[in-house]
Amino acid sequence: MKLRTESVSWREIDGEMVILDLESSTYMKTNESGSTLIRMLVEERSMDELVQSLVDAYDVPAEEASEDAGAFVAMLRERNLLETTA
Amino acid sequence: MTYQPPVLEEVGSVR
């Protein structure tokens, strides 16, 4: 999975990621751990890679990181911020 | 640093 690039721009400010979606005319922000995942998703990533990035950055148990990463990805999908694969 | 689960929050409308 990967962050959508068309009509989406983002910038990190004070640890928060601000995301502008020109397609839906909305802008959003993430917290610090969300920014970690967004930075990862600039490139194609697997769920395992996202989970590992949270484990490495915040020293959280893998099970907790897996649940949190899954929920975050679901939020991104809900807002159509991920590229759709053919 | 204190870990908080990642969240995505809508801030507003560009319009």
Set out the fold topology.
The complex is a heterodimer of chains A (86) and B (15).
Chain A: E1 8-13, E2 16-21, E3 26-30, H1 32-40, H2 47-58, H3 62-78
Antiparallel strand pairs in A: 1-2, 2-3
Chain B: E1 8-13
- Number of strand elements of chain A: 3
Series of H and E elements of chain A: EEEHHH
Largest interface, chains and sizes = A-B, 28 and 14 residues
Terminal Cα span of chain B? 36 Å
- Report the β-strand fraction of chain B as a percent range: 35-45%
For the report, how would you describe the main beta sheet of chain B?
A: none
N-to-C CA distance of chain A: 12 Å
Describe it.
Chain A: This is PqqD family protein. The complex is a heterodimer of chains A (about 90) and B (about 15). With about 90 residues, chain A is an alpha+beta fold. Chain A has one domain. Chain A contains three helices and three strands. Chain A is globular and about 35 Å long. Chain B has about 15 residues and is an all-beta fold. Chain B is about 0% helix and about 40% strand. Chain B has no helices and one strand. The mean pLDDT of chain B is about 80. Classes of the chains: A alpha+beta (about 90), B mainly beta (about 15). The interface between A and B is medium-sized, with 28 and 14 residues.
Keywords, please?
heterodimer; A: 86 residues; alpha+beta; 20% strand; B: 15 residues; mainly beta; rod-shaped
